[in-house]
Design a protein that fits this description.
Elements: H1 2-18, H2 21-24, E1 31-36, H3 51-57, E2 66-68, E3 74-76, E4 79-84, E5 90-95, H4 109-119, H5 129-133, E6 135-141, E7 144-149, H6 156-159, E8 186-192, E9 196-201, E10 215-220, H7 224-232, E11 238-242, H8 248-251, E12 256-261, E13 266-271, H9 281-289, H10 293-301, E14 305-307, H11 330-339, E15 346-352, H12 356-370, E16 374-380, H13 383-392, E17 398-403, H14 424-434, H15 439-455, E18 460-465, E19 467-472, E20 475-476, E21 493-494
Parallel strand pairs: 1-10, 15-16, 15-17
Antiparallel strand pairs: 2-3, 4-5, 5-7, 6-7, 8-9, 9-10, 11-19, 12-19, 13-17, 13-18, 14-18, 20-21
Helix pairs in contact: 9-11, 10-12, 14-15
Length: 495
Protein backbone atom coordinates (compact mmCIF):
# COMPACT_ATOMS: atom_id res chain seq x y z
CA UNK A 1 0.00 0.00 0.00
CA UNK A 2 2.75 2.41 0.91
CA UNK A 3 4.62 1.64 -2.32
CA UNK A 4 1.46 2.33 -4.34
CA UNK A 5 0.95 5.67 -2.57
CA UNK A 6 4.51 6.60 -3.42
CA UNK A 7 3.97 5.67 -7.05
CA UNK A 8 0.88 7.85 -7.25
CA UNK A 9 2.76 10.79 -5.75
CA UNK A 10 5.57 10.35 -8.25
CA UNK A 11 3.08 10.30 -11.11
CA UNK A 12 1.45 13.44 -9.83
CA UNK A 13 4.78 15.18 -9.66
CA UNK A 14 5.63 14.08 -13.17
CA UNK A 15 2.29 15.36 -14.43
CA UNK A 16 2.83 18.68 -12.67
CA UNK A 17 6.19 19.04 -14.38
CA UNK A 18 4.50 18.69 -17.76
CA UNK A 19 1.83 21.34 -17.07
CA UNK A 20 2.10 24.57 -19.07
CA UNK A 21 3.33 27.68 -17.25
CA UNK A 22 0.00 29.43 -17.87
CA UNK A 23 -1.77 26.82 -15.74
CA UNK A 24 0.84 26.98 -13.00
CA UNK A 25 0.48 30.77 -12.92
CA UNK A 26 -3.12 30.36 -11.82
CA UNK A 27 -1.87 29.33 -8.40
CA UNK A 28 -0.40 32.80 -7.84
CA UNK A 29 -1.51 34.30 -4.53
CA UNK A 30 -4.90 35.99 -4.85
CA UNK A 31 -5.54 37.38 -1.35
CA UNK A 32 -4.15 40.52 0.26
CA UNK A 33 -4.24 42.16 3.69
CA UNK A 34 -4.04 45.95 3.89
CA UNK A 35 -3.36 47.96 7.03
CA UNK A 36 -5.33 51.10 7.89
CA UNK A 37 -4.76 53.56 10.73
CA UNK A 38 -8.40 54.63 11.13
CA UNK A 39 -11.50 52.48 11.00
CA UNK A 40 -14.43 54.02 9.10
CA UNK A 41 -17.51 54.92 11.10
CA UNK A 42 -19.74 53.69 8.27
CA UNK A 43 -19.43 52.56 4.67
CA UNK A 44 -21.34 55.31 2.87
CA UNK A 45 -18.97 58.12 1.78
CA UNK A 46 -21.95 60.33 0.90
CA UNK A 47 -23.08 60.36 4.53
CA UNK A 48 -19.86 60.98 6.47
CA UNK A 49 -16.80 63.20 6.25
CA UNK A 50 -14.14 60.65 7.25
CA UNK A 51 -11.64 59.85 4.49
CA UNK A 52 -11.34 56.32 5.90
CA UNK A 53 -14.75 55.50 4.37
CA UNK A 54 -13.37 56.11 0.89
CA UNK A 55 -10.22 54.13 1.71
CA UNK A 56 -12.35 51.00 2.11
CA UNK A 57 -15.10 51.59 -0.44
CA UNK A 58 -14.20 53.99 -3.27
CA UNK A 59 -13.27 52.39 -6.61
CA UNK A 60 -13.72 48.98 -4.95
CA UNK A 61 -17.37 48.78 -3.84
CA UNK A 62 -18.64 52.06 -5.29
CA UNK A 63 -17.71 53.89 -8.47
CA UNK A 64 -18.12 57.40 -9.81
CA UNK A 65 -18.55 58.87 -13.28
CA UNK A 66 -14.88 59.80 -13.43
CA UNK A 67 -11.76 58.32 -11.87
CA UNK A 68 -8.89 60.21 -10.23
CA UNK A 69 -5.54 58.58 -10.86
CA UNK A 70 -2.36 58.57 -8.79
CA UNK A 71 -0.92 61.44 -10.84
CA UNK A 72 -4.06 63.54 -10.31
CA UNK A 73 -5.33 63.08 -13.87
CA UNK A 74 -9.02 62.34 -14.48
CA UNK A 75 -10.20 59.53 -16.77
CA UNK A 76 -13.59 57.92 -17.55
CA UNK A 77 -15.03 55.33 -15.16
CA UNK A 78 -18.81 54.84 -15.20
CA UNK A 79 -18.95 57.51 -17.87
CA UNK A 80 -17.58 56.40 -21.22
CA UNK A 81 -16.93 59.97 -22.39
CA UNK A 82 -18.18 63.51 -21.97
CA UNK A 83 -18.45 66.90 -23.59
CA UNK A 84 -18.04 70.23 -21.81
CA UNK A 85 -19.56 73.51 -22.98
CA UNK A 86 -17.19 76.45 -23.61
CA UNK A 87 -18.49 78.26 -20.51
CA UNK A 88 -17.69 75.20 -18.32
CA UNK A 89 -21.27 75.01 -17.07
CA UNK A 90 -22.85 72.18 -19.07
CA UNK A 91 -21.46 68.63 -19.02
CA UNK A 92 -22.94 65.91 -21.20
CA UNK A 93 -21.98 62.38 -20.11
CA UNK A 94 -22.33 59.24 -22.22
CA UNK A 95 -22.58 56.34 -19.75
CA UNK A 96 -21.22 52.83 -20.13
CA UNK A 97 -23.93 50.35 -21.11
CA UNK A 98 -24.76 46.98 -19.61
CA UNK A 99 -23.51 47.75 -16.08
CA UNK A 100 -25.41 46.47 -13.06
CA UNK A 101 -25.28 47.13 -9.35
CA UNK A 102 -24.37 44.32 -6.96
CA UNK A 103 -28.09 43.71 -6.29
CA UNK A 104 -28.84 43.23 -10.01
CA UNK A 105 -30.43 46.63 -10.63
CA UNK A 106 -29.28 48.49 -13.77
CA UNK A 107 -26.87 51.41 -13.74
CA UNK A 108 -28.29 54.18 -15.91
CA UNK A 109 -28.89 57.92 -16.18
CA UNK A 110 -31.77 57.68 -13.71
CA UNK A 111 -29.38 56.32 -11.06
CA UNK A 112 -27.01 59.24 -11.73
CA UNK A 113 -29.82 61.76 -11.33
CA UNK A 114 -31.01 60.07 -8.14
CA UNK A 115 -27.49 60.08 -6.68
CA UNK A 116 -26.75 63.73 -7.40
CA UNK A 117 -30.22 64.99 -6.42
CA UNK A 118 -29.86 63.06 -3.17
CA UNK A 119 -26.36 64.42 -2.54
CA UNK A 120 -27.58 68.00 -2.94
CA UNK A 121 -30.98 67.55 -1.31
CA UNK A 122 -32.32 69.12 1.86
CA UNK A 123 -31.67 66.03 4.00
CA UNK A 124 -28.20 65.41 2.58
CA UNK A 125 -25.26 65.03 4.98
CA UNK A 126 -22.79 64.85 2.10
CA UNK A 127 -19.78 66.98 2.95
CA UNK A 128 -19.82 68.30 -0.64
CA UNK A 129 -23.53 69.05 -0.51
CA UNK A 130 -22.96 72.59 -1.79
CA UNK A 131 -21.41 71.24 -5.01
CA UNK A 132 -24.40 69.03 -5.77
CA UNK A 133 -26.98 71.60 -4.68
CA UNK A 134 -25.66 73.80 -7.49
CA UNK A 135 -26.37 71.11 -10.09
CA UNK A 136 -29.34 70.53 -12.34
CA UNK A 137 -29.29 66.90 -13.52
CA UNK A 138 -31.24 66.04 -16.67
CA UNK A 139 -31.85 62.56 -18.07
CA UNK A 140 -31.76 62.47 -21.87
CA UNK A 141 -31.99 58.69 -22.19
CA UNK A 142 -30.74 55.64 -20.27
CA UNK A 143 -27.13 56.26 -21.26
CA UNK A 144 -27.02 60.06 -21.53
CA UNK A 145 -27.15 62.53 -18.67
CA UNK A 146 -26.61 66.31 -18.68
CA UNK A 147 -25.27 68.19 -15.66
CA UNK A 148 -25.77 71.94 -15.58
CA UNK A 149 -23.67 73.72 -12.96
CA UNK A 150 -24.80 77.05 -11.55
CA UNK A 151 -21.14 77.89 -11.02
CA UNK A 152 -18.07 77.69 -13.19
CA UNK A 153 -15.78 75.08 -11.64
CA UNK A 154 -12.60 74.15 -13.53
CA UNK A 155 -12.10 71.24 -11.09
CA UNK A 156 -15.57 69.79 -11.60
CA UNK A 157 -14.49 66.58 -13.37
CA UNK A 158 -12.03 65.93 -10.55
CA UNK A 159 -14.75 66.46 -7.95
CA UNK A 160 -16.96 63.95 -9.78
CA UNK A 161 -14.23 61.35 -9.21
CA UNK A 162 -14.23 61.79 -5.44
CA UNK A 163 -16.03 59.47 -3.04
CA UNK A 164 -18.77 62.01 -2.32
CA UNK A 165 -19.83 61.67 -6.00
CA UNK A 166 -20.36 57.88 -6.07
CA UNK A 167 -23.38 56.58 -7.96
CA UNK A 168 -25.71 54.71 -5.61
CA UNK A 169 -28.55 52.31 -6.34
CA UNK A 170 -31.85 54.00 -5.33
CA UNK A 171 -33.44 51.00 -3.57
CA UNK A 172 -30.40 50.28 -1.41
CA UNK A 173 -29.05 53.82 -0.86
CA UNK A 174 -30.45 54.23 2.65
CA UNK A 175 -28.65 51.14 3.97
CA UNK A 176 -25.28 51.69 2.31
CA UNK A 177 -23.61 52.56 5.61
CA UNK A 178 -23.82 48.92 6.72
CA UNK A 179 -24.80 47.05 3.53
CA UNK A 180 -23.00 48.85 0.71
CA UNK A 181 -24.23 48.25 -2.84
CA UNK A 182 -22.32 49.64 -5.79
CA UNK A 183 -21.08 48.80 -9.28
CA UNK A 184 -17.46 48.18 -8.29
CA UNK A 185 -15.27 45.06 -8.57
CA UNK A 186 -15.71 44.08 -4.91
CA UNK A 187 -18.53 43.39 -2.45
CA UNK A 188 -18.44 43.54 1.33
CA UNK A 189 -18.07 40.10 2.93
CA UNK A 190 -17.85 41.01 6.60
CA UNK A 191 -17.08 43.91 8.91
CA UNK A 192 -15.79 43.00 12.36
CA UNK A 193 -15.96 46.40 14.03
CA UNK A 194 -12.82 47.31 15.90
CA UNK A 195 -10.79 44.76 13.99
CA UNK A 196 -11.18 44.25 10.24
CA UNK A 197 -13.31 44.36 7.10
CA UNK A 198 -13.11 41.89 4.23
CA UNK A 199 -14.12 42.33 0.60
CA UNK A 200 -14.48 39.64 -2.06
CA UNK A 201 -14.26 39.88 -5.83
CA UNK A 202 -17.63 40.31 -7.55
CA UNK A 203 -17.90 38.00 -10.53
CA UNK A 204 -20.58 40.22 -12.07
CA UNK A 205 -18.13 43.05 -12.59
CA UNK A 206 -17.83 44.18 -16.21
CA UNK A 207 -14.07 43.55 -16.29
CA UNK A 208 -13.84 40.78 -13.69
CA UNK A 209 -11.11 38.87 -15.57
CA UNK A 210 -8.69 41.77 -15.05
CA UNK A 211 -9.22 41.80 -11.26
CA UNK A 212 -6.46 39.65 -9.79
CA UNK A 213 -7.27 39.56 -6.08
CA UNK A 214 -10.07 37.25 -4.96
CA UNK A 215 -10.21 38.61 -1.42
CA UNK A 216 -8.90 41.73 0.33
CA UNK A 217 -8.93 42.20 4.10
CA UNK A 218 -8.46 45.55 5.84
CA UNK A 219 -6.96 45.42 9.33
CA UNK A 220 -7.48 48.52 11.46
CA UNK A 221 -4.32 49.26 13.46
CA UNK A 222 -3.92 52.71 15.01
CA UNK A 223 -0.85 52.23 17.24
CA UNK A 224 2.45 52.99 15.47
CA UNK A 225 4.35 50.13 17.14
CA UNK A 226 1.60 47.66 16.24
CA UNK A 227 1.63 48.88 12.62
CA UNK A 228 5.35 48.17 12.31
CA UNK A 229 4.99 44.80 14.06
CA UNK A 230 2.15 43.73 11.75
CA UNK A 231 4.32 44.35 8.68
CA UNK A 232 7.38 42.61 10.10
CA UNK A 233 5.28 39.59 11.09
CA UNK A 234 3.63 39.37 7.68
CA UNK A 235 0.16 39.86 9.17
CA UNK A 236 -0.24 42.83 6.83
CA UNK A 237 0.97 42.73 3.21
CA UNK A 238 0.81 46.48 2.57
CA UNK A 239 0.25 49.53 4.76
CA UNK A 240 -0.54 52.75 2.86
CA UNK A 241 -0.08 55.93 4.95
CA UNK A 242 1.67 53.99 7.71
CA UNK A 243 3.35 55.83 10.58
CA UNK A 244 6.62 57.35 9.37
CA UNK A 245 8.43 56.31 12.52
CA UNK A 246 10.51 53.16 12.28
CA UNK A 247 10.60 52.99 8.49
CA UNK A 248 14.40 52.89 8.27
CA UNK A 249 14.40 49.20 9.21
CA UNK A 250 12.35 48.48 6.06
CA UNK A 251 14.41 50.50 3.58
CA UNK A 252 17.32 48.06 3.54
CA UNK A 253 15.23 44.93 4.03
CA UNK A 254 14.92 43.04 0.72
CA UNK A 255 11.54 41.62 1.77
CA UNK A 256 9.89 45.05 1.62
CA UNK A 257 9.40 48.07 -0.60
CA UNK A 258 9.04 51.61 0.77
CA UNK A 259 7.30 54.34 -1.24
CA UNK A 260 7.11 58.01 -0.32
CA UNK A 261 3.77 59.32 -1.57
CA UNK A 262 3.05 62.93 -2.47
CA UNK A 263 -0.30 64.36 -1.40
CA UNK A 264 -2.49 67.47 -1.40
CA UNK A 265 -3.17 67.10 2.33
CA UNK A 266 -2.91 70.02 4.76
CA UNK A 267 -2.09 69.19 8.39
CA UNK A 268 -3.34 72.03 10.59
CA UNK A 269 -3.80 73.10 14.18
CA UNK A 270 -7.48 73.91 13.71
CA UNK A 271 -8.75 76.73 15.93
CA UNK A 272 -12.37 77.33 16.93
CA UNK A 273 -12.79 80.88 15.57
CA UNK A 274 -16.17 81.34 17.28
CA UNK A 275 -14.91 80.81 20.86
CA UNK A 276 -13.27 83.48 22.99
CA UNK A 277 -10.45 84.43 22.99
CA UNK A 278 -9.84 82.75 19.60
CA UNK A 279 -12.34 85.12 17.93
CA UNK A 280 -9.53 87.71 18.18
CA UNK A 281 -7.12 87.39 15.25
CA UNK A 282 -4.25 88.56 17.49
CA UNK A 283 -4.69 85.49 19.68
CA UNK A 284 -4.73 83.17 16.67
CA UNK A 285 -1.59 84.86 15.34
CA UNK A 286 0.10 84.46 18.71
CA UNK A 287 -0.69 80.73 18.66
CA UNK A 288 0.65 80.38 15.13
CA UNK A 289 3.81 82.35 15.86
CA UNK A 290 4.53 80.17 18.88
CA UNK A 291 4.77 77.11 16.65
CA UNK A 292 8.07 76.01 15.15
CA UNK A 293 6.76 74.15 12.11
CA UNK A 294 10.08 72.44 11.41
CA UNK A 295 10.22 71.01 14.93
CA UNK A 296 6.64 69.72 14.53
CA UNK A 297 7.44 68.08 11.18
CA UNK A 298 10.65 66.53 12.51
CA UNK A 299 9.13 65.33 15.77
CA UNK A 300 5.76 64.06 14.62
CA UNK A 301 6.37 63.11 10.98
CA UNK A 302 10.08 62.26 10.84
CA UNK A 303 10.75 65.33 8.70
CA UNK A 304 8.54 64.08 5.87
CA UNK A 305 6.63 67.28 5.19
CA UNK A 306 6.79 70.79 3.75
CA UNK A 307 5.79 73.81 5.90
CA UNK A 308 2.65 75.69 4.83
CA UNK A 309 1.34 79.11 5.81
CA UNK A 310 -2.19 78.79 4.41
CA UNK A 311 -4.66 76.08 3.41
CA UNK A 312 -2.85 75.20 0.20
CA UNK A 313 0.21 73.15 -0.69
CA UNK A 314 3.36 73.48 -2.79
CA UNK A 315 2.86 72.04 -6.26
CA UNK A 316 -0.83 72.88 -6.45
CA UNK A 317 -2.10 75.24 -9.17
CA UNK A 318 -1.81 78.86 -8.04
CA UNK A 319 0.25 78.14 -4.91
CA UNK A 320 1.99 81.06 -3.22
CA UNK A 321 4.38 80.78 -0.27
CA UNK A 322 2.75 82.36 2.81
CA UNK A 323 4.96 80.77 5.50
CA UNK A 324 6.45 84.17 6.37
CA UNK A 325 3.07 85.72 7.25
CA UNK A 326 2.93 84.27 10.77
CA UNK A 327 6.51 83.05 11.07
CA UNK A 328 7.88 81.48 14.25
CA UNK A 329 8.55 84.31 16.75
CA UNK A 330 8.02 83.63 20.45
CA UNK A 331 8.56 87.21 21.64
CA UNK A 332 6.12 88.64 19.09
CA UNK A 333 3.60 85.95 20.08
CA UNK A 334 3.84 87.02 23.73
CA UNK A 335 3.36 90.66 22.74
CA UNK A 336 0.27 89.85 20.69
CA UNK A 337 -1.34 88.00 23.61
CA UNK A 338 -0.64 90.99 25.86
CA UNK A 339 -2.02 93.40 23.25
CA UNK A 340 -5.20 91.29 23.03
CA UNK A 341 -5.64 91.53 26.81
CA UNK A 342 -5.17 87.82 27.44
CA UNK A 343 -4.20 86.90 30.98
CA UNK A 344 -1.72 84.06 31.16
CA UNK A 345 -1.54 81.24 31.94
CA UNK A 346 -4.41 80.57 29.52
CA UNK A 347 -5.84 77.05 29.67
CA UNK A 348 -7.13 75.57 26.41
CA UNK A 349 -8.21 72.15 25.20
CA UNK A 350 -6.26 70.40 22.45
CA UNK A 351 -8.27 67.47 21.08
CA UNK A 352 -6.19 64.74 19.43
CA UNK A 353 -7.66 62.01 17.18
CA UNK A 354 -5.85 58.64 16.89
CA UNK A 355 -3.36 59.17 14.00
CA UNK A 356 0.25 59.32 15.25
CA UNK A 357 0.85 62.69 13.55
CA UNK A 358 -1.88 64.18 15.77
CA UNK A 359 -0.92 62.50 19.06
CA UNK A 360 2.81 63.14 18.67
CA UNK A 361 2.29 66.58 17.14
CA UNK A 362 0.03 67.54 20.05
CA UNK A 363 2.77 66.92 22.59
CA UNK A 364 5.24 69.05 20.64
CA UNK A 365 2.80 71.93 20.08
CA UNK A 366 1.69 71.89 23.73
CA UNK A 367 5.34 72.33 24.78
CA UNK A 368 5.76 75.21 22.32
CA UNK A 369 2.56 76.98 23.41
CA UNK A 370 3.64 76.72 27.05
CA UNK A 371 6.50 79.10 26.25
CA UNK A 372 4.01 81.93 25.62
CA UNK A 373 1.80 81.12 28.60
CA UNK A 374 -0.81 78.92 26.89
CA UNK A 375 -1.45 75.65 28.74
CA UNK A 376 -2.81 73.09 26.27
CA UNK A 377 -4.68 70.26 27.98
CA UNK A 378 -4.26 67.23 25.72
CA UNK A 379 -7.35 65.07 25.20
CA UNK A 380 -6.90 61.87 23.21
CA UNK A 381 -10.16 60.77 21.57
CA UNK A 382 -11.23 58.01 19.21
CA UNK A 383 -12.20 58.88 15.66
CA UNK A 384 -15.96 58.61 16.25
CA UNK A 385 -15.62 60.96 19.25
CA UNK A 386 -13.69 63.46 17.14
CA UNK A 387 -16.34 63.40 14.43
CA UNK A 388 -19.18 63.94 16.89
CA UNK A 389 -17.53 66.26 19.39
CA UNK A 390 -15.28 68.41 17.19
CA UNK A 391 -16.58 68.16 13.63
CA UNK A 392 -20.32 68.02 14.35
CA UNK A 393 -20.84 69.74 17.72
CA UNK A 394 -17.83 72.12 17.54
CA UNK A 395 -17.02 71.36 21.18
CA UNK A 396 -13.32 72.18 21.21
CA UNK A 397 -10.71 74.94 21.41
CA UNK A 398 -8.04 73.47 19.15
CA UNK A 399 -7.39 70.17 17.38
CA UNK A 400 -4.80 68.68 15.05
CA UNK A 401 -6.12 67.15 11.84
CA UNK A 402 -5.03 66.55 8.26
CA UNK A 403 -7.48 67.72 5.59
CA UNK A 404 -6.73 65.46 2.63
CA UNK A 405 -9.08 66.73 -0.10
CA UNK A 406 -7.25 68.63 -2.87
CA UNK A 407 -9.93 71.26 -3.56
CA UNK A 408 -11.40 72.14 -0.18
CA UNK A 409 -10.98 75.92 0.09
CA UNK A 410 -14.77 76.09 -0.13
CA UNK A 411 -14.96 74.88 3.47
CA UNK A 412 -13.93 78.39 4.57
CA UNK A 413 -17.06 79.73 2.88
CA UNK A 414 -19.31 77.52 5.03
CA UNK A 415 -20.54 79.52 8.07
CA UNK A 416 -21.55 76.33 9.89
CA UNK A 417 -18.27 74.51 9.29
CA UNK A 418 -16.55 73.22 12.41
CA UNK A 419 -13.90 75.94 12.65
CA UNK A 420 -16.47 78.80 12.60
CA UNK A 421 -14.69 81.15 10.21
CA UNK A 422 -16.84 83.81 8.54
CA UNK A 423 -15.51 86.40 6.10
CA UNK A 424 -17.46 88.27 3.45
CA UNK A 425 -14.17 89.18 1.76
CA UNK A 426 -13.14 85.53 1.56
CA UNK A 427 -16.52 84.47 0.18
CA UNK A 428 -16.31 87.07 -2.58
CA UNK A 429 -12.72 86.20 -3.47
CA UNK A 430 -13.39 82.47 -3.47
CA UNK A 431 -16.54 82.82 -5.61
CA UNK A 432 -14.59 84.96 -8.07
CA UNK A 433 -11.79 82.38 -8.28
CA UNK A 434 -14.30 79.62 -8.95
CA UNK A 435 -15.97 81.54 -11.75
CA UNK A 436 -12.86 82.75 -13.57
CA UNK A 437 -12.07 80.91 -16.80
CA UNK A 438 -8.62 82.29 -17.68
CA UNK A 439 -5.97 80.22 -15.83
CA UNK A 440 -3.61 83.14 -15.16
CA UNK A 441 -6.40 85.24 -13.64
CA UNK A 442 -7.61 82.30 -11.59
CA UNK A 443 -4.09 81.60 -10.29
CA UNK A 444 -3.80 85.22 -9.13
CA UNK A 445 -7.13 85.01 -7.31
CA UNK A 446 -6.13 81.74 -5.64
CA UNK A 447 -3.00 83.50 -4.42
CA UNK A 448 -5.15 86.27 -2.94
CA UNK A 449 -7.34 83.65 -1.24
CA UNK A 450 -4.30 82.00 0.33
CA UNK A 451 -2.91 85.32 1.57
CA UNK A 452 -6.23 86.28 3.13
CA UNK A 453 -6.47 83.00 5.07
CA UNK A 454 -2.90 83.50 6.27
CA UNK A 455 -3.55 87.11 7.32
CA UNK A 456 -6.75 86.12 9.11
CA UNK A 457 -4.72 83.26 10.64
CA UNK A 458 -7.77 81.01 10.64
CA UNK A 459 -5.55 78.18 11.94
CA UNK A 460 -2.04 77.29 12.83
CA UNK A 461 -1.18 76.02 9.36
CA UNK A 462 1.48 73.34 9.83
CA UNK A 463 2.64 71.24 6.88
CA UNK A 464 1.96 69.26 3.74
CA UNK A 465 2.65 65.61 4.65
CA UNK A 466 4.60 63.17 2.54
CA UNK A 467 2.92 59.83 3.25
CA UNK A 468 4.73 56.50 3.50
CA UNK A 469 3.58 53.17 2.06
CA UNK A 470 5.37 49.99 3.15
CA UNK A 471 4.55 46.67 1.53
CA UNK A 472 5.78 43.22 0.69
CA UNK A 473 8.19 43.57 -2.25
CA UNK A 474 5.93 41.40 -4.42
CA UNK A 475 2.80 43.57 -4.13
CA UNK A 476 2.24 45.44 -7.38
CA UNK A 477 -0.05 48.31 -8.36
CA UNK A 478 0.14 50.52 -5.25
CA UNK A 479 -0.34 54.22 -5.98
CA UNK A 480 2.82 56.31 -6.23
CA UNK A 481 1.12 59.53 -5.07
CA UNK A 482 -2.17 60.17 -3.29
CA UNK A 483 -4.20 63.10 -4.62
CA UNK A 484 -7.17 61.47 -2.83
CA UNK A 485 -7.28 58.76 -0.16
CA UNK A 486 -8.39 55.55 -1.85
CA UNK A 487 -7.08 52.01 -2.24
CA UNK A 488 -7.44 51.00 -5.88
CA UNK A 489 -7.90 47.29 -5.21
CA UNK A 490 -8.57 46.29 -8.82
CA UNK A 491 -5.09 47.53 -9.73
CA UNK A 492 -3.34 45.40 -7.11
CA UNK A 493 -1.72 42.00 -7.67
CA UNK A 494 1.16 39.77 -6.63
CA UNK A 495 4.21 39.33 -8.83
Amino acid sequence: MKRRDFALSSAAIATLGQMPLAVLAQSKKDTLTLGMTLEPTGLDPTAGAASSIAEVTHYSIYESLTKINSDGSVTPLLAEKWEVSPDLRTYTFILRKGIKFHNGEPFNAAAVKFSFDRAGGEKSTNKDKRTFANLSTQVVDDSTVVLINNEVDPDFLFLLGQATAIIVEPKSADTNATKPVGTGPYKLDAWSKGSSASLSKWDGYRNASAVKLRKVTYKFISEPAAQIASLLAGDVDAFPRVTSRGIDQFKNNPKFQVQMNGSRAKTILAINNKKKPFDDVRVRRAISMAIDRKAVIDGSFDGNGAPIGSHYVPGAFGYVDTTAVNAFNVEKAKALLKEAGVTTPLEVSLILPPPPYARQGGEIIAAQLAKIGIVAKLQNVEWAQWLSGVYTNKNYDMTIISHVEPFDLGNFAKPDYYWGYESKKFNELYAKSKNTLKPADRAKLLGDVQRLLAEDCVHGFLYQPLWTTISNKNVKGLWKDMPVFVNDLAALSWS
